[in-house]
Amino acid sequence: METLNILFYGYATAEARSHADRHVPLTADRRYHGALDSLERPDLDELSARPGHQSVPIEQPDGTWIELDYDQLDRHCLETMNRIAADTGDPVLMFCTAPWYRSEAAENVILPFRLLEHVALALRAPEAAIGVIQPVAETADFEIQHWRDLDVPLEACVVGESEPFDAFAQAARELVARGASVIVLDCLNFTESHYRAVRAAVDVHVLLPATLLPAVIGATTR
Q1: pTM, two decimal places
Q2: Which CATH class is domain 114-211?
């Protein structure tokens, strides 16, 4: 069986690996990597957030948080993907649905944000909107932009992954009331439980990244 490299843009902690094992059903063998795993303090300082630039909050293994510059981190992830693919010869999955634009230049890479776009566009009813539920308010404006670039009606809201399932159901009903005919749960930390809460609340297509990836990865790793 082929092996799939899974890249976290932060650290491949035991918690992150356990979440992927439990919630993303894959038949391929897995090899986990963290883009920051081997970096020392001076390396992280070079990636630090800059005034006026988009930043990405990342939890470190010791529980503290750092803010890194998105563009610099994206560049580092691209370099990491290319190195992993060259070393292993196996595909690399970026374990994040945010838009990693530079990483599109990597070879043999799977970027969930593009997959979600294609499926949502295919399922959207004519003239209807795509509804997006995002997990983090601090990065929501930046992360929604690739959806806006599709130039179709769009409705979005933020519901954190730890919020009650009723909050997801209510958000879904509001998105449908505003014209959404398909709802995207736009985070790989959203699980089947979040999906069931949304699906029970509305009669439209609901996309959960964790359930879409296996089909794509299965085709890629044959």
Answers
A1: 0.92
A2: alpha beta
